[in-house]
Amino acid sequence: MAEEPADSLPEESEGDDDEELGFEGLDEDILPETPKVKSGFDPEDPSGILEDDEGEGEDDEEEEEEEDDDLDGINFSDLELSESNDDQPSMSRKATKQKVLSSDAESSPESENDEADQADNQEIPAEYWQVQRLIKYVKAGNPTATIIAMSSLRDFNLRDNYVQLAIKEAGGLEVLLNILETDENRCKIASLLVLREISSNPEISRNIYNMRGLETLIHTLRDPAKELKLLSAETIANISKIRKARRAMRKGDGISRLVDMLDFEQPGMFTGGADEETDFEVPRCGACALWSLAKSTKNKDAIRRAGAIPLIAKLLQTRQVSVVIPVVGILHECASEASFRLAIRTEGLLDYFVEGLKTPNHDLTQFCASAIYMCAEDPESRQIVYEKGAIDPLISIILDEHLRKNKPLLSAATGAIWKCASAIAKAGKYLEQGLVEMLVHLLDDEPENVLTNVAGAIEQIVMADPKNARLIKRAGAIPPLIGLLTINNPALLVNATKAVGQLAVDDEARREMDQQDGFRLVWSLLKHPNSSVQASAAWAICPYVESSKDSGDVVRNFVGGLEALVNLLKSDEMMVQAAVSQAVAVIATNDENLGIMSDHGVVQNLAKLAPTTDDQLRRCLASAIAECCNYKNNSTDFGRRKAVSPLCCYLTSEDTLVHRAAAKALAALSSDARNCITMHQCGVVPYLINMIGSLDNELQRAAAGVMHNIRKLALATEKVRLR
Questions:
Q1: pLDDT (tens digit, 9 = 90+) per residue, 230-249?
Q2: Which of 159, 226, 502, 586 is the most interior residue, by most CB within 10 Å?
């Protein structure tokens, strides 16, 4: 059973099977009357009906990076739907004309209104009026007429814009939701069949949410009837693609009820016969709804706390692809959280992902590769996936010309290889078998997400072993990598600059990059508006400058380059501050470049960042300050700008790399007597004494240098006092 891509939940096929639902031969006497439309819904103020506005800010901030409220993967034209008004039937015709008629009819002069109205009526499909008449029968209150009308309603294409507009403007949404509060299951099933289809429209989903429809659907999940559970879950899956609906499901205890639907077992559950597919509909629909809800960060934790992991592990053992795909989809979404990745690893679910790579179902293979991509963020999971043999099927996907045409599958496979690249490089087996050449071949004429993954894989391979830089250079990777630096895709630019920076450690690769003008392109990315690109460009500059003998002259050749670098220290992004500080530390080893940066205010910008508590920024910042103190009166200037006291606090960090960098900075600053006094007052002496006994030689020398200058000042002061 084929499923849709990861950004769209699997949909049920449309159909009209009244016999299975028992719509024939209904007895009017046993059916209750359909309740009238609720009066609590105010179409003029749909917001705030489900919950107050208070507290929304926290969730909005938590879900800033989530997908847009519009339903994913569904192509609907932008159709503005007006609110219904049951008391004024004429408004339906008027609103329809305003929103769905052609621009020619709307622009007709007033003198031709009658002719325009007649033309308008001809342009509205007959189905629109037929659907509105059926909604009137549903609202009539006769149970038999209600069920027959809804059965007839399903004969129309419920995903058509005109049909959905007719249902909404005739007040059908309120009636369909009210029917769910009756005691007649056949009426409720008929209503849910309609709601499941029309809720695929984002505007309809928002209206259902505003009418407190989610509360009704959550309550329906308690019903023991199987059909009601699965239809409610499918409807919730559609509505939950809206951000506020996901939050409402979490607060309304809907997640725990959906997790309960995963707890399903029957004799022969794991044999996977074709005739058993319908028996898995309840867990399948529950998994689809949870898949949609898992786009929220807080919902991911709620799913884990509801006990979903053991149930998911049990469902992964089935051979029903229709169940396994949404289950893997849940894991793919939730694997962005470290706690969920740990649970996946401890429950042994990584084995199922590797097995899924070998299935003939391409959709399942794609989702398993995507799940590996997410889980392999952790070194332990990365090594497990490698040892379980995931690389061979991933390479087979890339080598297969037919499968390579499936771009989502190719993207998932290259993404998994990217995350496992460090483990691959350490083993060396696949590099000898031509993995690098295969990846370089993908750098030509592929989608940008594939290029991003390939560039990331190359960067990881070189990072694992710098000797691999020459292997990648021989494979012809440098020209296409330099070409990627001209594509305005932030994610691609980040990986491409990192790869170029890692390759710069090799002399041959660096010379070829110079011929391709690669360093100039990397430097120009410092002016890119995206902060991640700025940070990656600054990091890429560091290995190039460190390994190049004439880098000082090259840097000065970029007009305004050093000024732009210093100005980036004013960035609000901590990752940019850290990367630029490290670049300043590397470039400042050249006296001329240090003088230019000092003239552009590097001292004051670094001093402003000194009070940070982030260890990475502390390490980079201390390294930059240590190098900048070698120019004229910069050490005195740092003390005057109150940068010494915060640096003393760096010695309390638990990161030994921060200790080393801070000790070097304090050693450079202690050349000024006032700075020595400040250090002594901050109580650095006990920390320095402990660091002198460290096994790190650089840390020993730096700590001893600070102690020497402080002691020297103390002795000089004592001599003056004794005189």
A1: 999 999 999 999 999 999 99
A2: 502
